[in-house]
Amino acid sequence: MRTTRRAVPADAEFVPDADPGPSPAVDPRSSASAKATPRPSPDATRRAVAAGAEFVPAVAPIPSPSVKVAPIPPGGTIGILGGGQLGRMLGFAARSMGYRIVVMDPDPACPAAAIADRVVVGGYDSVGGAAAALELARGADVVTYELEHVDAALIDAVEAAGVPVRPDAYALRMTQDRLSERRFVASLGIATAPWREVTDEAGLRAAAADLGTPLRLKAPIGGYDGRSQVRIGAPGEIPGAIERLGRPPGTPLLVEREFDFAAELSVITARGLDGTLAAFSVARNRHDAGILVESVAPAPIPDAVANAARALGARITQALGAVGVVTAELFLLRDGTLAVNELAPRVHNSGHGTIEGARTSQFEQHVRAICGLPLGDPAPRGPTAMVNLLGTGKPRDARLEGAAAALADPLAHLHVYDKRTVFERRKMGHLTVTGAADVEAALARARAALAKLRWR
């Protein structure tokens, strides 16, 4: 998980571009919402500015793709860049709809290999992955990706070969580089955490004097689950911080002020080929040392906050012009405002509970979108909790015990990712409980079931 952006008011209004007056709450599944732009109310703007946030005029959204593009029917082939657990679950959803799957991953025994018709072995950089990416595209009707750490040049090469990539290279470029992502969010008029670009210790000291501490110093490219960042709690911790990050001298880096937050949230928004939007229930998440450990949905938050989060997700997804699902990780601040933590143009760990907990899972929704099919209903089936099953100990063969005891709870559902090696804090699977009285009861049952699982 990456951290912090600028605040956006929780009571932001959602106002159509063509109508200067206020509008009703956005319908996340309406095609009209694809042309809408959320704007903060004047009072909310003043509160956000008073809290140290900046607002800039929004740019025009990316036009919707042509609705004349023919859908890809079942029997077609979907190429997936990345064969981890996200690619695996995407593959399961696509398989159930009758699609064929080709996966590209550096590991021929990756988790998605079990559901793939073909695995292309190759890295995600332009040097080692270019030929593999073209091989992936051969015979594919559409290509998507399960991670942002793919060289955008590979996306360009696939598109140049005549195969559509959804979401496209623009969405990837805007979100895989933290500095580009900051500027993109600012261009939309959305508030984020105060930040600066620095290249040396002198610049870092100036940023600390301007922003205050604590700060997070981050590498723009690479890193996830808390990696590739250094916390600076006080000015005395500045010396050596850039060296501890492990980046060459002169590399542009992002430094931003930490937020004191009340809760971590995320919203997953799907956008169809025709521009239709559909938002899932907002999730409340908890991380440990940067790794997601549990999510509940619908988040137990005020309706105004949930509506603002969905409006923010719709605005970002529309501006990216993304076809597929886009995740916005958020912080709910103690003053009631929202701050963007991270954007991901893909399916997301915090949406795993939608497999059992929503009428349409995030994985099926992504497949529907990239294949040009109508979006499904993302409404929740009931209170849902998802807990991650993490690895423990030194690297060894993965052997899980306790499944029978964990599944003695009839509301529990176990997903194991078929990773051959387990080690400390590796994401090995997840467990979901849906249908309990409320999300707190679901979370308690999920935690209890998880406690019965162990790695030999």
Word description of this protein:
This protein is an alpha+beta fold. The chain has 3 domains: 77-175, Rossmann fold (3-Layer(aba) Sandwich); 194-258, Dna Ligase, domain 1; 261-455, 2-Layer Sandwich (D-amino Acid Aminotransferase, Chain A, domain 1), CATH 3.30.470.20. Helices cover 27% and strands 26% of the residues. It contains 13 helices and 24 strands. Strands 1, 12, 13, 14, 15, 16, 17, 18, 21 and 23 form a 10-stranded antiparallel beta sheet that branches. Helix 2 links the parallel strand 4 (77-81) and strand 5. Helix 5 crosses helix 6 (178-187). Residues 1-67 have low confidence and may be disordered.
Summarize the structure.
The protein has three domains: 77-175, Rossmann fold; 194-258, ATP-grasp fold, A domain (Dna Ligase, domain 1); 261-455, 2-Layer Sandwich (D-amino Acid Aminotransferase, Chain A, domain 1).
